[in-house]
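fold-stage: in
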Amino acid sequence: MKIEIWSDIICPFCYIGLTKLEQALQESPSNPQAEIRWKSYQLNPDYPEDAPAISTYDYLVQTKGMSMDDVVAMTSQLSAQGKELGIALNFEKAIIVNTKKAHRLIHFAQQYEKGTPVKKALLKAHFTDGLDVNNNDVLTEIATQNNLPTEAVKNLLASDELAYDVAQDIQEGVSLGLRGVPFFVFDRKYAIPGAQPLDVFRNTINECLASESVPLERRGEEGPSCDPETGKCE
């Protein structure tokens, strides 16, 4: 089974949705062998790559028209959802940066079959540890911890290599009906928009394994996701 996932590193529902997907795969009695391919998406593509980091709270207040009380309430709810799944979403530490460089690193990691561990390390770095996922030293450390060739990674980060792949991913997702992230596509048969309930993932996995090739079908209504226009994650 091939599962393509459009997501962004700074998207909390992408972290939540991945955790639900992994749980559903682990619980499946069919013990499916899933090939996960990461697809890039940027919630804040216009945030300058050389701009200093800004706290998530301040960014949402300044750019999305939300009050600080609304931001704290929204992020507190998201943190509680993460805690139930065993992941720490520390919004008081998380900072906003441009994520294109991190997406390029994920593309590079997939060449070595390391896409998922690198993606998960980036999510943890952003949400749990409050690290700058646009910083070359942070990205190089994550790459080294996942046994990627250090010099090749440094050359990647010093160039614009794989930027075209990032842009192509975004266009491809939109052509498939993506309106927010996360967006999960199973064998190009079924699509799950958003971090839907665990049962949606379980049922989709089972039906995907049992069905023949069909036109892409969306499962359920639009689930919890991060909207690139409003910046809200709900």
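fold-stage: in (second)
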Amino acid sequence: MQLRALAVASLIALSAVPSLALASTKAPTPALKSIADLPTPLPYPYNEQADAEADLAAAIKAAKKHKKLVLIDLGGNWCGDCRVFAGIIEQPDIKPWVDKNFEVVAINVGRYDKNMQIPARYGVDKLKGVPSFLVVDTKGKLVNDGSFFALTDARHMTPQSIVDWLAQWPAK
């Protein structure tokens, strides 16, 4: 019992220190209860002709200006899970919350043969699937280290679980 009390006290003490507190923000409740309820056709979120470096630089600049995080979405239009994620964050009841907290930049990685220097810059040398996400603060620091591949199976998740995953990182 004393060990449990000590653990609770430690968590309370850690949460009082802003840099050590477990970050989270309240996720909205999507009207959609199932991925099957997404309107079709699903979006093609990745501009295959885009200058990924310029798009990323613009997202970082905007994030600094508006004190948001950058959500780097790495994927390809061939990927059903990538298109499901894009469909979820474009829903009218989710988009304002996403826009308030993140500058989203969709980076086409082709079939793992394009723009791979971007994840490498943040220490991710190999993608284990797509979509993969890097959440970066306004100083360029990766804030979701080790949690890049959680949505690679988005089409088998609920809309709420996808939004809850995003809510782990509040705007800075």
